[in-house]
Amino acid sequence: MAAGIIIIITVSDTCYKNPTNDTSGPTLVELVKSLFPQSTIQTNIIPDERKIIEDKLKEYCMKNADLIITTGGTGFSNRDVTPEATRAVIEKEAPAISVALTIESLKKTPMAMVSRSVSGICDKTLIINFPGSKKAVIECFEVVKPILHHAIEIIKNDTKKVKSVHDSMQGHVCPHKISSVDVTKVALRPRESPYPMLEMTEAFNIVDSVMKKWVGTVQQVNIENGLGYVVAESLYAKEPMPPFPASIKDGYACISSDGAGVRRVRAAVSAGDSFDLPLQPGECARINTGAPLPPGADCVVQVEDTKLISATPDNETELEVEILTAPKPQQDVRPIGFDITLGDPLVTEGAVLDAALLGVLAGAGYQNVRVRTRPVVAILSTGNELQDPSEVTLKPAHIRDSNQTMLKALLKEQGYTSVCMGVARDEAGALRASVAAALRTADVLVCTGGVSMGEKDLLKPVLTQDFDATLHFGRVRMKPGKPSTFASCQFEGKTKYIFALPGNPVSAYVCCLLFVIRALRVCEHRNAEFPRMRVRLTKQFQLDPRPEYVRAVLKFTDDIPSAEVLGNQCSSRLLSACGASVLLEMPPADKDLRCLAAGTVVPAIITGRMDLN
């Protein structure tokens, strides 16, 4: 959907009186952002008053909002009047949406029977009621997420996109169609992976060659939001810095030809002051660091090289000082253009904006800069055993999904934003729908889980059979992360890129660093490699038949930093990545070398902040 307006309304007396009590509204905003990253999202908190609710709905409909989602006021109490207010506004009811919400909610709790959500259309605005709890908002959004884009396109009469979806239902990719993957013949599943085992260098080369084809655009950003972006144009100094001769010290602006001796203190000049009358021989001006030299002055004598001769009776004004040592021309003076000369290059195309460069641009009068756009990244977890980490009670045989939170933060650490697409079940149809929704949202999809050899590992066949994806590789000779998969496909006329990573948290963590971050850097035409250094092992390390990437923390106690391996390196033990600043590149074991002794020097990839220990 093209960028439009989406409204989130929290209906609650309690939240209206104290907005900090509102948890469902902010949660809904994040969910909507993940599905509509280019849209304008507006929020409002209103009391449980039918007239106020009606008026707000009408107001936003008149402003041509594409979608309004209300949260709260759908229960049985006297104050729960959101459904009645919604019915008074809508022109067409959408009962199937309400029924779908009820059916899915009843699967979670019988309490869903006391919710009375209403959905419908007012002019060209879709309105949907959600219950008021954070948990219900998350669950209900997952229900309607697959149809929202298409529903809005129909209401807006976007015939081109509607036709595209209808055409896709005739045999091309459709998020609602049953998957082409046959999961019934479990006994015939492969007993060995059909994908060749690639060496790491080969996998890196494939990622580089494929991702170089991604075509981004150029956008203008305010320098306050420019950190980490790659500059798309060279910028030059529009003025010298400093633009005037400036004092380097606190002291006295003098005429060097006067030499040493007593001077009459004519005035004081502070940073930001201007001084128009030239100094005369035998005069000086008290001056602060950074202040412009008065006309006629050509040097500064620091306070330490002077002596007070006389002052006013109240000691508030110096009258005469003695210059103890004869100054030299331009002593302690920063001349015009000393830091930056007019026309000097400030930043070259392809440079990454860091704090210092942003400071240079701000000082040179640049408020906006053209930068290369970054791919939109979506994160999708897969697995029947996963539940949202916000749920307090852990269901039987379930675990909380940590991968989305971890990968989103890991990408942010490396300078990239992402949107979370929730959890897809290990069912071909559900997986197909979730992948389609993610591909519609993003340029790069990062999936975790479903890529190994189990009967429920369906991601690779769904990609190839339902999306006609090209699998550039499906296995890599590495530990952890052997089943890591990299694919691309055409979706709705655009090339999409998919990194399907193992579901074990450490595998996802390591492979996101090595493959996904690399790919995003390639898209920006910047150096894709992490910096490397040599480190010394603090303990003996048993080698694996595959090259292994080991999480470690550094201690700077010698000429070569010492690397301390973090905990159990099992791929499900995310604790082994906590605090890691490097990945040790361990060689594979062979008949002559099965372990590395303490003190062995190995290469390390620097992936995190280098704290001193």
From TrEMBL:
This entry carries the following GO cellular component terms, namely: cytosol; dendrite; postsynaptic specialization membrane
Q: MoaB/Mog domain: from which residue to which, for each copy? A: 7-151, 378-522
State whether keyword Lipoprotein applies.
Answer: no
Q: Per its UniProt entry, which superkingdom is the organism in?
A: Eukaryota
Q: Which InterPro entries match?
A: MoaB/Mog-like_dom_sf (IPR036425), MoaB/Mog_dom (IPR001453), MoCF_biosynth_CS (IPR008284), MoeA-like (IPR038987), MoeA_C_domain_IV (IPR005111), MoeA_C_domain_IV_sf (IPR036688), MoeA_linker/N (IPR005110), MoeA_linker/N_sf (IPR036135)
Please give the cofactor(s) recorded in the UniProt entry for this protein.
Mg(2+)
The pathway entry for this protein reads as: Cofactor biosynthesis; molybdopterin biosynthesis
Listed under GO biological process in this entry are: establishment of synaptic specificity at neuromuscular junction; gamma-aminobutyric acid receptor clustering; glycine receptor clustering; Mo-molybdopterin cofactor biosynthetic process; postsynaptic neurotransmitter receptor diffusion trapping
From the UniProt record, list the reaction(s) this protein catalyses: molybdopterin + ATP + H(+) = adenylyl-molybdopterin + diphosphate; adenylyl-molybdopterin + molybdate = Mo-molybdopterin + AMP + H(+)
GO function terms (MF aspect): ATP binding; metal ion binding; molybdopterin adenylyltransferase activity; molybdopterin molybdotransferase activity
UniProt entry tagged with the keyword Cytoplasm? no
Q: Which UniProt keywords apply?
A: Magnesium, Metal-binding, Molybdenum, Molybdenum cofactor biosynthesis, Transferase
Q: Which family does it belong to?
A: In the C-terminal section; belongs to the MoeA family. In the N-terminal section; belongs to the MoaB/Mog family.
Its annotated function is as follows: Catalyzes two steps in the biosynthesis of the molybdenum cofactor. In the first step, molybdopterin is adenylated. Subsequently, molybdate is inserted into adenylated molybdopterin and AMP is released.
Name under which the protein is recorded: Gephyrin
Instruction: Tell me what organism the protein belongs to.
Output: Papilio xuthus (Asian swallowtail butterfly)
**What gene is it encoded by?**
LOC106117987
